[in-house]
Write a structure and sequence with these properties.
The chain is α+β, with helices and mostly antiparallel strands. Helices cover about 15% and strands about 40% of the residues. A hairpin with a 2-residue loop joins strand 10 and strand 11. It starts with a strand and ends with a helix.
């Protein structure tokens, strides 16, 4: 995780300055996912780094809601010689969702999220399927019990402790990225009809 240490507004852009354990390994131009949103490092100084979110990013994500002191899930880009653990995640957030329930599962936690869903959005692959993948604040997870506009995910203690899931409660706005394979299939279907 990273912590927001400064926020600067410049016209429609927001510059977020953060600190994290791997700042010394970063360089200008690198991409890092922040709550699942892929952003470029634009400045390094004083054991912190800065990224810029533009209007499109702010409209589709929860980054505009961040405050100084907030924790953000961060993930560096995959090395081409590394393992592909989990699902295929691009860092291209599709929209936000709201947590509508958190249930203690006697050791783990079950979260229910609600998102805007229209026929047009579904047509473009913005939906969830049981046992499919979804990314919540950059954390790649397996979907449980989806409906037309909700889904559940179950979080093990390690994920709860090492991501900002420990701060998510009813009413929290999160970023979601739908499964890229579903989006490709929806697009191919659209082009064939």
């Amino acid at each position: 995780m990273a912590r927001v240490v400064a926020i600067e507004h410049e016209q429609d852009n927001v510059h977020l300055t953060l600190t994290c354990p791997f700042v010394e390994e970063l360089s200008i131009d690198q991409s890092i996912a922040h709550n699942g949103v892929c952003l470029t490092v634009v400045r390094l100084e004083d054991n912190s780094y800065t990224v810029t979110a533009m209007r499109e990013t702010l409209e589709r994500s929860n980054l505009g809601l961040l405050k100084v002191g907030d924790e953000v899930n961060v993930e560096r880009s995959m090395l081409m010689n590394g393992r592909l653990d989990g699902h295929i995640v691009q860092g291209h957030v599709d929209q936000t969702a709201v947590c509508i329930a958190v249930e203690d599962q006697q050791g783990s936690h079950q979260y229910t999220f609600k998102y805007e869903s229209t026929k047009e959005m579904v047509k473009h692959g913005y939906f969830t399927v049981d046992k499919g993948s979804v990314t919540v604040n950059g954390v790649s997870l397996t979907v449980c019990r989806p409906t037309a506009d909700t889904f559940q995910v179950c979080i093990i203690p390690y994920t709860f402790d090492n991501t900002n899931f420990h701060a998510i409660k009813e009413g929290t706005v999160v970023n979601i990225e739908f499964d890229i394979i579903g989006k490709y299939i929806a697009r191919m279907h659209e082009l064939q009809n």
